[in-house]
Specification:
alpha/beta, 5 helices, Lysozyme-like, globular
């Protein structure tokens, strides 16, 4: 039953993306839901996706995060949300710019939202709340999928803390094991 729902959702997403007249990626090959956040816009015409920013939600559930990203007054979103059990919710088509990085810079290039994919992982970001095995697997699956289309070396899988300006403005994702993620995402 869940697979059938996923196929229906994938079909609807594909139709919406084609309607935007942009080259569309096939749906992420994971069981996932899609809820289009209003908090996104077009990437600059010359933008090349070459970075993934990993976040911690500081919220307690996928549902709470989805509701936040669906609220236009919040003016925040990410491309994907990953729950504690590894469930994935896509909130913004990869071809669009999600609003996850804020004022940011990577290797001297500002406006990280322009050229990145944002992945939010449900976690309190207190350094004590562990990231689950299922979350690592799901995030790695998303990255493997993205790497089929975009050049995303391990050095371009970064934390929100690493790109936020001014330095120290963000701390997420505290306690996340990037070496483990890179090994799983090969």
């Amino acid at each position: 039953m869940f697979a059938m729902v996923g196929l229906v959702l994938c079909g609807r997403v594909a139709q919406k993306v084609r309607a935007m007249r942009q080259p569309a990626l096939p749906p992420v090959p994971l069981a996932y839901a899609f809820h289009l956040s209003p908090n996104c816009d077009d990437r600059p015409p010359d933008a090349v996706i070459n970075c993934v920013v990993i976040h911690a939600t500081v919220l307690n559930s996928v549902e709470e995060t989805v509701q936040t990203f669906l609220n236009p007054a919040k003016k925040v979103s990410a491309h994907f949300v990953v729950g504690r059990e590894g469930q994935v919710v896509q909130m913004v088509p990869v071809e669009k710019r999600a609003w996850h990085a804020g004022i940011s810079e990577l290797e001297g290039v500002p406006h990280v939202n322009d050229y990145s994919v944002g992945i939010e992982i449900v976690n309190r970001n207190d350094g004590k709340d562990p990231f689950t095995d299922a979350q690592y697997e799901a995030v790695a699956g998303i990255i493997r999928f993205l790497r089929a289309r975009y050049a995303l070396p391990d050095s371009r899988l970064v934390s929100h803390a690493a790109i936020a300006l001014p330095a120290g403005r963000k701390s997420d994702p505290l306690g996340f094991d990037f070496a483990r993620l890179c090994a799983l995402a090969k």
